[in-house]
Write a structure and sequence with these properties.
mainly alpha, about 90% helix, elongated
């Protein structure tokens, strides 16, 4: 899970960096709407998911240790 979470985090970071570059030339109401309706929500969801994945990773490690 840890590797998947790291990959998701890295890809999301790359997407947000590319969005910042795009915003340099796309500056209108639709760009603001796109960011608000999709990208901010995506970032929030990814952050929450990464936290849950981290907790699951810890839980799986604990279960593994208790079964040995």
């Amino acid at each position: 899970m840890s590797a998947s979470g790291q990959r998701i985090g890295a890809l999301t970071k790359d997407l947000m960096n590319r969005w910042r570059q795009t915003k340099e030339s796309w500056r209108d109401q639709k760009a603001d709407e796109f960011e608000r309706d999709f990208l901010i929500e995506l970032q929030t969801s990814v952050d929450k998911s990464l936290h849950v994945m981290e907790q699951l990773d810890k839980l799986l490690a604990k279960i593994k240790n208790e079964c040995e």
